[in-house]
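Lab meeting, action items carried over

1. Structure of the two-component assembly. Owner: GW. Status: complete.
Input record:
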Amino acid sequence: MPTHLELELEAIKSKIFEMADLAIEAISKSVESLKKSDTTLAQSVIDGDSLLDQLEITIDDECIRVLVTRQPAATHLRLVLAILKINTDLERIGDLATNIAKETVRLQGQPTLKPLIDIPRMAEIGIEMIKDALRAITEMDPVIAEKVIERDNEIDELNIQIYRELFSYMAENPKSISQALGLIMIAKVLERIGDHATNIAERAIYYVNGVDVRHSDD
Amino acid sequence: MPTHLELELEAIKSKIFEMADLAIEAISKSVESLKKSDTTLAQSVIDGDSLLDQLEITIDDECIRVLVTRQPAATHLRLVLAILKINTDLERIGDLATNIAKETVRLQGQPTLKPLIDIPRMAEIGIEMIKDALRAITEMDPVIAEKVIERDNEIDELNIQIYRELFSYMAENPKSISQALGLIMIAKVLERIGDHATNIAERAIYYVNGVDVRHSDD
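Predicted assembly:
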């Protein structure tokens, strides 16, 4: 039979998965709103962010309560500490999706430079990274998490590529500056979402192995 | 006589202040390197970031050790939890200063659009915010922290102003695009440093009052 502590940890885990689902949905909807110039969808991302904010506070509170009342040790303690940090990353991912949605609202009505391919691809990779980082926790498999960390390069390279391409657009056609600048900002936001997914993967490895892999390849 | 726990908390506090000093120095040097087009100084910021990375891991480890071995309660527990989160913010601030330094290296040799005034001003405000947020912890004074949170608007407004100004530069003179884009990115980075300083102030209020003020005005 599971202990009180184990039951409480399961409850916290399911809340952090709920938080991840909301963050992923926010990324996906914000990029969809950009592709379709759909300001109503963009506004729903902006309005929905308060849900993530509330959930962040709830999860922090529950982690603290478990720390105080159950005094977990070893793997259980590492899980609580990992979740405390993952929680911050997911809330930040929600904020970043909101930034994309706000840029969509700002860009609305401006001519599309070209069909968006690389930006949705960056979002896709970011979402896969978040999902896999959390799967590494459920399956307690550090190899999955290591693969997430490696994929951050894919996002970084797409960001550089998008920057170069839009830079040329601006130089050739000053009328495109406003939109190109918006897309450069959005690519940068997605690159940061990749950084946060990497953080989550690092916390997953810490939880499973007890090893802190942050900055190990700096 | 102070208890073991109190002595250990003092040691952790002095490490987090050391971390803050390093982060502040990184911001200050990176903006100085930009002003003077000094790539050697910029490189020293980039190289120095590993110190912050190492200190982050040390502080996290010591917080965890205190949680496990001393099982702190009430104010003491809140201090450890606040420091665990502040630690992440300060490490991120160090990364952001590195981004400014990298942009300085990239921009080197390009003509200056005009003397830099607003960007150094943003850096100054950011540094004052970080210092005051930590002073709120030492003096256990939530009013200082509340003022820090209010000041985030100043940085946000400077960022918007810089964006508008550089946007006009680009539209008028496509040759300025590369440098203007670099400065827009740097202003955005400083705006994010303000966000992290705000986070630190919120954690200070949580530590002193036990009240979570995150997202309370959303």
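2. GW to write a short summary for the group page. Key points so far: Chain A touches chain B through 32 residues (CB under 8 Å). Chain A is about 85% helix and 0% strand.
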